[in-house]
Structure formats: C-alpha cells, structure tokens
Specification:
Helix content is 36%, strand content 2%. By secondary structure, the protein is an all-alpha fold. The longest helix has 10 residues.
Length: 357
C-alpha cells in the first residue's frame, strides 16, 4: 500500500447564529446558507474493499472532522505507514473466516483495544478507510463498551459510520445495542449527523425500535438544535415526517431564541415547507423567547403570502410580543398586509375575522 497523508478536520454543522436579543429585527434575521453543510455521497456498503489498499475518500468524506480550520490535526495512523501495516496483523479477519465461525484469540481481543494517539480504535479506522468487511468483523467480536469508545473528538464509531453513509455498519452497531445518545464535540448525536447529511436510510435505522427514542429526539446539540430543527433547516419533508412520526415534538424550541420549526420555516421564507409542517398540527401561535409568533415574523418580513397561510391556519393577529406589538401593529403601512389582516378586534369563536385577499 502506498504512503498517504490523511488530513483530519472536525465534523461541523453551521446552524443559524442567533442572539438572545428579543427584538423583532433579530427574530427575522436570515439564516446562513444551509447548503454550506456538505456531506459525502457514499453508496450503501457495496462489495467489501480489499484489506490491502484503502480507497481514497472524496469530497467531505476525506475530512474526518472539522470544528475549526486552525485546529487541523494529522492522525499518526494516517501518516507514512499504511493502515494495514500499522495495525496488528491479528486484528485482520483470518482468511476464509466468517462472523459466525471465527474464534476470538487473546491477541485479536487485545488488538480490538488498540487506540491511536488521537483515540481512534481499529473500528474507527476501518470506517474512515471505507473497509466495511473489516469493520463488521470487529463489531462481531467486540463488546459494547469497546464499540462505544469515543476518540479525542468525542466521535464514536457510530458517528463516523453515519457521517460516511455506511448503512450496513450503522445497522450492525445498532444491532449490538450501542449508545445512540453519545454526543461529539459539537453536541451532535449520530441522528443529528444523519439529519444534517439528509441520510434518510441511516435515520430510519437509528430510529428503528429504539427503546430510548423519545430521549434521543429531545437531545439538543451545543447550538441548541434538535434533530427536527436540523431537518427543518435542511428543508427535508421526508426527514421531518419521519422524526415527527417517531415522536419528535413539532413545537420544540431551539435553545438560543426559542424558535420552533414553524418559526424556522417562516424565517427561511419557505411556503411549501410551512405547509408541510402545518399538516402535522403544530401550535400556530407558538412563542419565541421574545414573545414573537410565526405570524410576527411573517408580517415583520413583509411576506403577505406566508402571513396569509398562517392566518388561514388560525394564527392570532392580536398576540403581543414582549415589546407590546401585535402582528396587526406590524402590518401598519403595508397595503398588502392591511388587505389581509382585519382592522378591528372582531372575533368569532375566539379567533379574529380574516378578510379574503
């Protein structure tokens, strides 16, 4: 195997950067480009790669992790010595061995406890080097506590398998009942990464029969984002539906400013996404920490189309935020919004009368 240097960066998510300020101006600020979240397109575990050569990774797959560019590191295991040359030979599957027929030698078990200088196990390295046959062999031998080992970037093998789209490895790890709730240095679980990478197949596996599924769906990363928030920011209806049907709270607030998925859809000015979320019966008048409803954001951004959809869904035009403003107040001076919103306090069954546009 030829000598190769592998540069390793921390996995990154770039969710919206929101401040705690309760002002409306901050409530309607633009989200950063969601397309900046790039993930590798790796086919589901195809034919096993040869253990004699490690195929190059493409695109984001060649970046093991990226937290900050200045914090790049070089894994010593990826240096001038090839992977198989640097690993104990007893760690490799014996010729012709199968998972059911292989016998665990003491040397093989010792090799499973190998850690690189950066805390990577042989399983981490097998996944990084796209060697699913070797990864599956290790998984068949190793106890659960070994499979849950996190490297110095707090990544478990499950994190890396999801990030690289190795569905077969993800299934094998889930079948061994590894922890689904482990968080990396950005607070992301494997399900966060599946949502950020829009990997529906991995998400289905992670949510399949999980006894702790409800807790998993509630976990927020260090940016205050749950998996549903990330799926919403990725504008992925299939993922959103999967998460909600699995028990995710559609009214959950992200941790920085208290936006619900409905707020995020309005902030991204995405009418189809807003309509999809409304099909799941969210609380249309959910409040941010500053008291703003999704309708406040729609009117504040002067988007009559989104405001109309929310009013048709029963949004309250007289709900006041912490600054004392109602959506009706914010519509003042905008003829389109004035044609949409009523000018008085007439209500029927507790809801304002909305004029037709």
């Amino acid at each position: 195997m030829s000598e190769q240097d592998w540069s390793c960066k921390r996995l990154s998510l770039h969710p919206e950067d929101v401040r705690y300020d309760s002002g409306l101006a901050d409530s309607v600020q633009s989200l950063p480009e969601e397309a900046g979240l790039t993930f590798p397109s790796v086919p589901d575990d195809g034919p096993a790669t040869s253990s004699s050569s490690s195929p190059p990774l493409h695109g984001a797959a060649e970046d093991k992790v990226s937290e900050m560019q200045e914090l790049e590191r070089l894994d010593s295991t990826y240096g001038s010595v090839s992977l198989t040359e640097s690993l104990p030979q007893t760690s490799l599957p014996p010729s012709g061995a199968t998972e059911s027929g292989s016998q665990d030698s003491d040397e093989q078990l010792d090799s499973l406890m190998y850690l690189s200088e950066e805390g990577d196990t042989l399983l981490h390295l097998s996944i990084i080097h796209a060697m699913p046959k070797m990864a599956l062999y290790f998984i068949s031998l190793a106890p659960k506590d070994v499979l849950n080992i996190q490297n110095d970037l707090s990544q478990s093998a499950l994190h890396l398998a999801v990030y690289l789209g190795q569905v077969g490895v993800v299934e094998a790890l889930v079948d061994k009942d590894v922890s689904l709730e482990l968080q990396d240095r950005r607070g992301d679980t494997a399900l966060h990464l599946a949502c950020a990478g829009e990997n529906l197949a991995c998400a289905v596996v992670l949510l399949r029969g999980s006894r702790r599924r409800q807790n998993l769906l509630q976990i927020q990363n260090w940016k205050g984002l749950s998996c549903l928030h990330i799926a919403t920011m990725k504008r992925n209806p299939a993922l959103i539906s999967l998460l909600i049907e699995s028990g995710a709270d559609i009214n959950s607030q992200e941790g920085n400013s208290g936006k619900t998925p409905l707020h995020l859809a309005v902030q991204m000015v995405d009418r189809p996404l807003l309509l999809h979320l409304l099909q799941h019966s969210p609380k249309v008048d959910a409040l941010m920490y500053n008291g703003c409803t999704p309708l406040h954001l729609a009117v504040g951004s002067e988007d009559a189309g989104l405001a109309r959809v929310l009013c048709q869904a029963g949004a309250d035009i007289l709900q006041r935020n912490l600054e004392g403003d109602t959506p009706q107040d914010l519509a003042e001076g905008n003829n389109q919004l004035f044609a949409l919103l009523p000018f008085d306090d007439l209500k029927i069954s507790g809801k304002p009368v909305v004029t037709s546009a």
